[in-house]
Design goal:
The complex is a heterodimer of chains A (165) and B (86).
Chain A: H1 5-11, H2 27-30, E1 34-45, H3 46-64, H4 67-73, H5 77-97, E2 110-114, E3 120-124, H6 126-134, E4 139-146, E5 150-160
Antiparallel strand pairs in A: 1-5, 2-3, 4-5
Helix pairs in contact in A: 3-5, 4-5
Chain B: H1 3-18, H2 41-55, H3 72-81
Helix pairs in contact in B: 1-2, 1-3
The chains are: A alpha+beta (165), B mainly alpha (86).
Chain lengths: 165, 86
């Protein structure tokens, strides 16, 4: 019988970095190995994002991103576009990982922050935080990447896992 | 033209402009599955922003779901529910 990705993750706990909830510390320092119970990925077309910003830009930016995310994106146009695209991908990946597609989530309630080590970290607010809490989810991992054309984000829901003797 | 007709027209125009579908949105059935026709989450946000601006309404968080964007009819219902028909 073929294995799913979740089967593989369950059987082979992986060390997790770039983890944040309220602690914003690398998971590897306080919980390793971990069990992954949810996974989400999202790919954003950066030219499409540029088009969106040129047509519905101000409204889009103010509805989707937090003030901190906008500040983190900086003022250099090309870099800002890439960073906002990656953050948008992270928000969508989080919705997938937490199974919130029909939960009615304000995208500003899923915030990408930077840790002191300059790694991305997720912080949930409002309805998104309540949804995660209701599911017993306390920690998650996020990874972002981009090139000139695409931005991608992966979000994993992680749980502490007891070591077997 | 009724208020609902005006919303439906705005939805079709927004989906046609921002949905980047490969079909003629203006003649699409109200219940045609937009995700199956190529709609992405990135497009959904653009459509939402365009509709909120055009109809001077803001969809509440509880209506910002994948289901809301699944068809033209669902979008019309959500916008009507949010007060766009007033």
């Amino acid at each position: 019988m073929s294995k799913t990705l979740m089967d593989i993750f369950s059987e082979n706990p992986i060390p997790v970095f770039h983890v944040s909830s309220t602690r914003r510390q690398p998971m590897s320092q306080d919980c390793s190995p971990c069990r992954v119970s949810g996974l989400g990925v999202d790919l954003v077309s950066i030219p499409e994002m540029a088009r969106t910003l040129s047509t519905v830009g101000e409204r889009f930016v103010n509805r989707v991103f937090t003030q901190q995310e906008l500040a983190d994106a900086g003022d250099v146009a090309e870099v800002r576009l890439q960073r906002l695209s990656a953050r948008f991908a992270a928000k969508e990946a989080t919705i997938k990982a937490l199974g919130m597609a029909n939960a009615g989530i304000n995208l500003q309630d899923i915030e990408v922050q930077r840790t002191a080590e300059d790694a991305p970290a997720l912080r949930l607010h409002g309805r998104a935080a309540r949804h995660a809490q209701a599911l017993g989810i306390q920690d998650w991992a996020v990874s972002l990447s981009h090139d000139a054309e695409h931005a991608i984000a992966v979000v994993a829901i992680v749980h502490p896992r007891e070591l077997t003797p | 033209m009724t208020a609902t007709d005006r919303i439906r027209q705005a939805v079709r125009e927004a989906v046609a402009r921002h949905g980047r579908l490969t079909v003629d949105v203006m003649t699409l059935a109200d219940d045609a599955p937009l995700y199956d026709l190529g709609l992405s989450s990135q497009h959904c946000v653009s459509i939402l922003m365009a509709l909120e601006a055009a109809l001077d309404v803001e969809l509440p968080d509880e209506l910002l779901t994948r289901q809301t964007f699944s068809s033209i009819g669902r979008l019309v219902d959500a916008l009507s529910q949010a007060g766009a028909a007033d």
